Every structure is written in C-alpha cells, then in structure tokens.
Amino acid sequence: MATVFRIDRLDRLIDNDAYCIHLKFTNDNDSQLAALTEYKSAQFYIQLLQESNLLPDERAIALSNLGSTYDSAGDHSKALKYYLETLDIEKEHKLSSDRTLCNIGYAYWRLQQYELARKYYQLALDMALSQRDNELIACIYENIATLLADENDLNQALVYHDKVLIIREEYLLSIHKNIAMTHYLTGNLLFRQSNFDGSLKALKKCLHIQLLSLPPDHSDLHMTFTRIADIYRHLGRHEDAFDGIARAMKINLQSIEMNCRLLGSDHPNIQSDLEEIRLLSPELNRNRSTNNNKT
C-alpha cells in the first residue's frame, strides 16, 4: 500500500481572487479515486491550468493534482509528466517540493522503475526529516517499505513498517485508521514469510482498531477479514476461516447493495464485487462442509 499526495480541492475566493487549497493523503485503496470520477477531475485541472492569472504555487498545485488524478486512473507515465512539471515550477520559485518528490517516486514505483523510485523517495525523505513533518515521514517510510516488498526484501520492508508504527503511535490516536493499516501491512508481509502466528497477531491488532473506528461495511474490514481467513486456513483452523470468509462476504454484499443504488447493477465496480463473491463462495462451502463433517 503506497501513498500519493493529492489536493482535496481548490476553492476560488471571490474577495481576493485566490484559491483555498486543501491537501489530503490518499492511497491505492482509496474508494474516492474510482475511475468514475477521474475524467471529471482531470478536465477540471486542465481547464484551470489554461487560466493566465495563476500564481506559480497555484499552477504547481493544479499540475500536481492533475498528476495524482492520472495516477489513480492508472496512467502513471502521464502522471509522472505532470509531477516533473510541478517540480520544475517549485525549483524555479523556491517552493516546497517534498510531496512532489514523493509523488515522483510513487509514479516511478508504479512504472516498476525501482531505482528511480528509491532516489526520489530518499530526496523526499531528506527534506521531510529536515522539516520534522511526521506524517510525511511516515508516508515515505511506508512507500519505501512497499517498494522493498515488491523487490522481495521483506525483512527490510518490515524494518520500515516498524519505523512507521513508532512515528504514528507517537502523534495519532491509538484507534486511528493509519495505525490499523500499518498493522495490516506488517501482517501481510509476515504472511508472505509464512510467519502465520506473527501475521495473525498483527492483523488482530489491525482488526481491533478498524472495528472501533470504521463503519461495519468498510472495505478495509473486508480486506482484513479475508486475510485473517487465509491465515486460519494455513493453520488448519477451518471454523475460524469459515467465520472470516462469511464476515468478508457480508461486507461485500452490503457494498453491492449500496453501489447498485448509486451506480447501477452493470457498473464495473459491482461486477468486480460479484466476481469476488463468486470466488469466495466455494471456499465458504468447503469450510461449511468441513465443519459439518466434524460434527
């Protein structure tokens, strides 16, 4: 799970002809970045960039957000182009470029150009450390961990996730979703190392936080229940695996019901959910059969 920085919105202020800029972090799993909205977002920023009275920082922000729009739509080459344009403006006008450097690293990572990704992540990290920007530092560490995991350097990736957890536990609430995600990513790496007991411990910490902080139909809960069920299967605990899959499926069904009302039953997102349920159903039935045989 890697993070790309995105401007939440730019609001024109009538009284002074400026923009009110709202920055937020997003990640690969952010439902708000569904392709359904990306075309409109791109068109908004393209039109904005045609205005001649934009200040350099406003132009940099619009370019950066256009890049993140293309990133979330899967066009990472085009995203990189806009991030590099953003960086040029920031260098010319001596603007802060730490988030842009991180976004460039993210785009290179998605393009599987790992050495370049590592280079820009390090540049971003050096700047964030000098500014003591804790959330940015944590996000960069998390991105580096994701890159290392892609390179199968799982032990080093775990080291970076530990760094993320230390930082986030210092300044975030104990039930913050970002702490839950750090536990999830740690559990996922331990699962890849076949350390099922360690993975289960990390994922239970993740689930505890998510149950306290997220709505019951949130997609992150679905993800966690599914992974926990995977672990129980590997441990031979079929009844627990059955419970995890059933809870994951319930969330998926709730998601489909809601999305059908919003998007229509033929929307690709809904078809994807239905396919996931189709894939889960045989496992659910196998676990039910195993449980019945035990009794």
Description:
By secondary structure, the chain is mostly helical. The protein has 3 domains: 1-131, Tetratricopeptide repeat domain (Serine Threonine Protein Phosphatase 5, Tetratricopeptide repeat), CATH 1.25.40.10; 132-213, Tetratricopeptide repeat domain (Serine Threonine Protein Phosphatase 5, Tetratricopeptide repeat); 215-295, Methane Monooxygenase Hydroxylase, Chain G, domain 1 (Up-down Bundle), CATH 1.20.58. It is built from 12 helices and 2 strands, in the order ββαααααααααααα. The protein has helices at residues 35-49, 56-72, 76-92, 98-110, 114-131, 134-150, 154-171, 177-192, 196-213, 219-234, 238-263, 268-294; strands spanning 3-13, 18-27. It has a two-stranded antiparallel sheet. β1 (3-13) and β2 form a beta hairpin.
How many strands in all? Answer: 2
Mean pLDDT, all residues: 82
Instruction: Assign an overall shape.
Output: globular
Low-confidence stretches: 9-25, 31-36
Radius of gyration: 21 Å
Structure class: mainly alpha
Going by CATH, the architecture of the largest domain would be: Alpha Horseshoe
Strand content: 5-15%
The helicity comes to over 70%
CATH class of the largest domain: Mainly Alpha
Question: Helix tally?
Answer: 12
Named CATH topology of the largest domain: Serine Threonine Protein Phosphatase 5, Tetratricopeptide repeat
Q: Biggest β-sheet: count, sense, barrel?
A: 2 strands, antiparallel
- How would you name the CATH homologous superfamily of the largest domain? Tetratricopeptide repeat domain
Tell me the span between the first and last alpha carbons: 41 Å
Order of helices and strands: EEHHHHHHHHHHHH
Q: What is the count of distinct domains?
A: 3
Strand order, biggest sheet? 1-2
